Amino acid sequence: MGTSPAIVMILFVAVGCFMAYPEAVTAKHTGITRHYTFNIKLKNTTRLCHTKSIVTVNGKFPGPRVITREGDRLVVKVVNHVPNNISIHWHGVRQLRSGWADGPSYIMQCPVQTGHSYVYNFTITGQRGTLFWHAHISWLRATVYGPLIILPRRNESYPFVKPYKEVPILFREWFNADPEAVINQSLQTGGGPNVSDAYTFNGLPGPLYNCSAKDTYKLKVKPGKTYLLRLINAALNDELFFSIAGHSLTVVEADAVYVKPFETNVLMITPGQTTNVLLKTKPKAPNATFLMLARPYATGMGTFDNTTVAGILEYETPSSSLKNRPLLKPGLPAINATNFVANFTSKFRSLATAKFPANVPQKVDKKFFFTVGLGTKPCPKNQTCQGPTNTTKFAAAMNNISFALPRTALLQSHFFSQYSKGVYTTDFPAFPLIPFNYTGTPPNNTLVNNGTKLVVIPFNTSVELVLQDTSILGAESHPLHLHGYNFYVVGQGFGNFDPENDPPKFNLVDPVERNTVVVPSGGWVAIRFQADNPGVWLMHCHFDVHQSWGLGMAWMVLDGELPNQKLPPPPSDLPKC
């Protein structure tokens, strides 16, 4: 019996709707399931009059926007068509009992090899706001990245004025060279990596660079409207100041958590952080065009890309009135304006309301103190290196342990415990083994120890962690990102942390809740979190150069006693090493 033309047409329309609107599937009372496909493919791309083949998702640079709602399930099939191994990290997603979908290569999974695929399957639980996704292997996130927009549940509103329009703006470097070659050369020679050639807004360097005027990001606005700018620092190695000439910005969210609103003319966003701001346009279109600028905040002793990216904020008016408009430029702090950064970061506070509480642990089960900074490794025999001396290579460490990636995934090794022997050890030190004057005169011996060492904590442990910068090879700001968790930033300061006098000053009422925190240059920061998510969770510096040099460690959170406190088995298509 044949199928009627009417039924065929209905099926055709249904399939077309599914392809056009990935959310239109599998409705549930808690949310819906949204399907995406990420084809990892090479794409010739030109910036600064330089054309090269880059790794992309679906041929897009930056990558596609992933839009979901709180309570939805995301199912993303990643298909690898390039020679490089790949994995995708959903930066800032809590991944409650879904650690198999977190993405960092050799931590949660083995990477997806050429010609293979993997389905990331996870639910957005208790989160709404701006996050992002990026490759999490070597330096591939230089081109493999994109926004992850989590809208509130349907019929839920923002705790601020409803914006007329929402606009994601991603900050990123551009390298004329292949970023993989850049980091490979650095690791081989032991020296610092070559710096980027430009910064970009949404992949566009803008008019301040040679041969780049046509690649300028333009934000066209209407007078008398409120815009929500979703700012994402997806840069590899650079903290950035950001400002728009003639306009103030109201900060309303950080790392997908609402904050008490505050107004500022300049923001500093570190790699791994997101900040939502409200931009209220002028009541009438002014006779001017406004530059938006970003340039680095830099504190280390190494070289950095000391350039500025420019975009244009332009009021929509009749084309005849665009002529002879003055171009206004904002002011930005000095490159090393550490006091400005400390003052700016101290303004972030949780809403701490009944609907959006600040559930900061009031009592602490376990306290940890980690030093964070650079160090050295010996140069191999019969080789001259380009580190601090010609006999050493640059390295980085926490508590003087430089993290060594294993050859198989830590979470797999942990889950199938018979394979854990020889992959990792569980003796990461809770405190520095040899205390010293961390921000004073550095010790003569700067050599680090290598190891794949984890901290093991029982389920639901309340943790307090102090992260202390050191002056070894120069004090420097470090953005620390914790996978699988948000945490509360309860205190920060300059100099050495004082365990007697600093804790009484901790904010346990409305501290900001984040997934990435800046360890101040020459200072410390204290965080607290509840270890309620079983698995193996990476914590690392979000400067990729420091992560490549070993600035990271991992937390192993054991299963709880109840079924909903245990990590489920891995999916059948989990990649193999």
What are the key terms here?
mainly beta; Cu_oxidase_Cu_BS; Immunoglobulin-like; 3 domains; 5 helices; copper; 8% helix; copper ion binding; 577 residues; disordered N terminus; CuRO_3_LCC; globular; 33 strands; six-stranded mixed β-sheet
Would you kindly provide a written description of the structure presented here, covering whatever features stand out?
- It is a single chain.
- This protein has 577 residues and is mostly beta strands.
- It folds into three domains: 27-157, Immunoglobulin-like, CATH 2.60.40.420; 160-318 and 325-350, Immunoglobulin-like, CATH 2.60.40; 366-557, Cupredoxins -  blue copper proteins (Immunoglobulin-like, Sandwich).
- 8% of the residues lie in helices and 37% in strands.
- The protein contains five helices and 33 strands.
- It has helices at residues 5-20, 179-189, 338-345, 410-415, 544-548; strands at residues 33-47, 50-57, 66-69, 73-80, 88-91, 117-123, 129-135, 145-151, 165-174, 198-201, 218-221, 226-233, 239-244, 249-254, 257-264, 266-269, 274-280, 289-297, 309-315, 327-328, 366-378, 392-398, 401-403, 449-451, 454-457, 461-469, 478-482, 487-494, 512-514, 516-519, 523-531, 535-541, 552-557.
- The strands form seven sheets. It has a six-stranded mixed β-sheet, with no helix packed on it.
- The radius of gyration is 24 Å and the shape is globular.
- Mean pLDDT is 94; it is low at 1-29.
